């Protein structure tokens, strides 16, 4: 069992995040899904970015940080698209995280990342939000800092392919992502506490 903090996309906290949390809870994990937009959601990316502008990034990060208070240092950080940016900002403060799960976008590795940290990235290919150079940079940083990185690309899928409410949903790619994420989290839960997984 692991604790997981799942940060939502620019569309707000929606069924895709809640369903992911339900899957992980059924697998025996404990999950929090902070609402970083104060209850508001968006139907399109344009609406989502306007919502983000109204909310402000500082407020988003403050809400995410408050959601982590009281959670174990080892809590897994997970993000959906914009949520991976939240992970990027909070990770330097949470370097004891048992692992990091990145859905639909990469994150930046902090200079202080713990060697051996397990990281998994799932993204469509091609995806304008996940250009090849960003993935290459993540791979280089992982090698340099001895991070155990796995990258899974899903050819032909849309950016938010895991979201069943959107036209770009790809059921096969989504199911494969959730299965791989489940195995990733199970492996973290099996790792002895206090050791690099």
TrEMBL record:
Asked whether the UniProt record includes Endoplasmic reticulum among its keywords, one would answer no
Which Enzyme Commission number(s) are on file for it?
Answer: 3.1.-.-
Return one GO MF term: hydrolase activity
Q: Which UniProt keywords apply?
A: Hydrolase
Every copy of the Dienelactone hydrolase domain together lies at 5-186
Q: What class of enzyme is it?
A: hydrolase
Instruction: Name the InterPro entries on file.
Output: AB_hydrolase_fold, Dienelactn_hydro, Dienelactone_hydrolase-like
Is the keyword Hydrolase in the record?
yes
Q: What is this protein called?
A: Dienelactone hydrolase family protein
Q: Which organism is it from?
A: Streptomyces carpaticus
